[in-house]
# Entry
Amino acid sequence: MKRILSLLLSAGLACQVFAQEDAKPSTRISRDTMLIGDQIEWVIDLTFREGDRFFVEKPDEQPAPGVETISPMTFDTVSLKKGIVNVRGTAILTAFDSGSYFLPPLVTAIGHTDGSVDTVIFDSPVMEVATIPVDTATFKPYDIKGQIKYPLTLKEMLPWFGLALFAAALIFVVVRLIKAHRENTSFFGKPVVKDPPHIVALRSLDRIRSQKLWQNDKQKQFYTAVTDTLRLYVSERYDISALESTSAEIFENLKDKGIEPSLYGKVQELFETADYVKFAKHKASDLENEEAVPTAIKFVNETYMQQIEADSKEEK
# Structure
């Protein structure tokens, strides 16, 4: 109580309102009985004269064991008439077990304009909490119901249809690609028409010449491109594994292919120069660089014509 009075008289914590004359404060709960888990209002009413101050010690968050505070007590002015003010405080409580709960007393300190202080202690109401009554005469227990199953709707099934169609399309594409690769056909089964080896080689050599690699001090790239083009042509033209063979092995296999000796020698020199440039950091002369592509083109053209002549003789 001393704490309440000191708070009230220390200039400020008490709410500015009212004075009382013949005050008849009351406290009550909104219902005598409530069900478990329901909510009930705890109400306090005060009547004061305007200009006085009052302080109510608010209850704890759990005003009684088993009682929970949903909303703490708040005060509002109900009416103001002829200098008399009616104030109401309201808290919302609940409980989750049946029984009788004795709410704590509320202590109020009233400070009058003449400096006097009155103390009022409110009686504690009893909060009755009851369970839902069960008619044992007619009550019949039932097993726990299983989960209710509702039929699938079209909206729920559409994503699964879409997923199934996507999976089927993906499988079809993979199968077609594998089959096309094995049969050397296009995706739709049409035979892939490959350009003849000499056309592929001549096209590649023309592109190498337009790149001007050796003119830009890129001799290694230049000779690598030229010899790789000839390796691929020799592999396709003579059916030998020129891509995995050394230069010496390539020309050993070309000895009996009927290539004109001078052309054979020039191409062999081209490969030797390329090996020096690629592996021995040799710098080829401008003449060697200028003759590299023309020599390769001549080799492709003459060996192709040699094949045409051989095919013509066979037809005759």
Notes: The CA atoms of residues 104 and 254 lie 113 Å apart.
